[in-house]
Specification:
Layout: E1 23-26, E2 38-44, E3 55-60, E4 69-74, E5 92-97, E6 109-114, E7 120-123, H1 143-298, H2 301-317, E8 360-361, E9 368-369, H3 375-384, E10 386-388, E11 395-397, H4 401-413
Length: 414
């Protein structure tokens, strides 16, 4: 499975600090045909402990750090890794690189085993991605040519070492300069950020000053409002106390009124009974008046008047218990002898009978007035027993003044 999509762990460690002998690559070909998959075989030594983030990369010859890989594959862990620290040592491992990810030029490349710290643990011999040609056939040379080639190779190797040292120094200087440049850029960015922050803080400070000034003004206004509210609360408290006292007085007065209402109800019941008795008496008088009117038509009026005159003394004696007034003397035919005792004035007992005197009896005290008593005198006597309401002109018995007072109190409550 291709694992080149993830970034492997790398480092800026130089070649001099690498350990190329801890992983040995086997069966590395001099040429690999382009367009085909490449199988990489290697062996771990006793000093190599594989870890989960180890990887094998293809590097172009002349690389300086592990960051310069062309492509890579994760190195598989041995199956018995957890049983021993140097598990997998001496065993053959292999990784297959897909043709899609391989280089397309004919430069020299090599396999490198890199651990999860970014340190190279082994490197293969160089190889190329091209087909083998006849030019690659080994040519046998003479001993002198070999010595000359070795000398040239030695000189080239020395120059290569010098160039490597110079390159390493320049690379280190470049790294240092890049780090300094990076720090300088970071400092410049920090300065710009600080400037922008200072401007923002100044704006916020001005805004806070304005807001603080506004809040102070509001605080002064609210202080004045608070004083007004305190005064209003004091006024409301005093009003509340007054209303509470008035409410208590009203409740006490209501209790008194309720007790008075109970008394009134009792008195009303008594008055109802008295009214009922009076009504029965009135009905009796009406019935007796009707009977007398009927008997008058059948008997001699003169004889009837004589009988009534004989009964008059007895009626005068029982006037305190009887509610029917009686008149002495004969009455002409067609004239009633009795009047209504509940009227303010006495009844007229004859329209055209000058010789028959009218008897008047007070409906309050049952007092009988003589025939020469005037109407105004009789009405004044009856009015002396009554009390008249100044609001509705209703009259009440003076002997029961409490009912009159309660009636006036009801008008006051309205």
């Amino acid at each position: 499975m291709d694992k080149t999509s993830d970034e492997p762990p790398t480092s800026a460690v130089l070649l001099d600090n690498c350990h190329f002998s801890q992983v040995v690559f086997n069966n590395v070909q001099k040429f690999y045909v382009p367009g085909g998959d490449v199988t990489c075989q290697y062996t771990l030594t006793q000093n190599m402990v594989p870890r989960g983030k180890d990887w094998v990369g293809i590097f172009r010859v002349g690389w300086k750090t592990t960051r310069e890989y062309y492509t890579f594959m994760w190195a598989p862990l041995p199956s018995d890794t957890h049983s021993d620290t140097n598990s997998g040592a001496g065993a053959q491992h292999q990784i297959q690189f897909k043709a899609y990810y391989l280089p397309k030029d004919d430069e020299y490349y090599q396999f490198c085993y890199v651990d999860q710290d970014g340190v190279v643990r082994g490197a293969s011999v160089p190889f190329q991605f091209r087909a083998e040609t006849e030019d690659d056939i080994l040519v046998v040379t003479t001993q002198g040519e070999v010595e000359e080639l070795e000398l040239q190779n030695k000189n080239l190797h020395e120059e290569n070492e010098e160039l490597k040292a110079s390159c390493a120094s320049l690379q280190q200087q470049n790294i240092n300069l890049q780090e300094e440049l990076k720090k300088t850029q970071e400092l410049q960015n920090n300065v710009e950020s600080l400037r922008s922050n200072i401007e923002k803080l100044e704006l916020e400070l001005n805004s806070l000053r304005k807001e603080n000034k506004h809040l102070k003004e509001q605080d002064d206004c609210r202080g004045a409002e608070l004083l007004q509210l305190k005064e209003q609360i004091q006024n409301v408290s005093s009003d509340k106390d007054r209303l509470a006292s008035r409410l208590r007085a009203a409740l006490e007065h209501m209790d008194q009124l309720q007790s008075q209402v109970l008394n009134y109800e009792k008195e009303v019941e008594n008055l109802s009974r008295v009214n009922h008795d009076k009504t029965e008496q009135l009905e009796g008088l009406k019935e007796e008046n009707r009977r007398l009117r009927v008997s008058r038509t059948q008997e001699n009026p003169r004889d009837e008047n004589d009988a009534l005159l004989r009964r008059l003394p007895r009626a005068g004696e029982g006037s305190s218990s009887s509610s029917v007034p009686q008149a002495p003397g004969p009455a002409p035919e067609g004239v009633l002898l009795f009047g209504n005792p509940y009227c303010a004035a006495g009844a007229n007992l004859g329209a055209g009978a000058a010789n028959v005197a009218s008897l008047r009896q007070c409906p309050m005290c049952n007092e009988v007035f003589p025939e020469d008593t005037g109407t105004s005198q009789y009405e004044a006597h009856v009015q002396s027993h009554l009390l008249q309401c100044p609001h509705c002109s209703q009259t009440f018995d003076k002997s029961n003044k409490q009912v009159f007072d309660d009636h006036l109190l009801c008008h006051g409550l309205e």
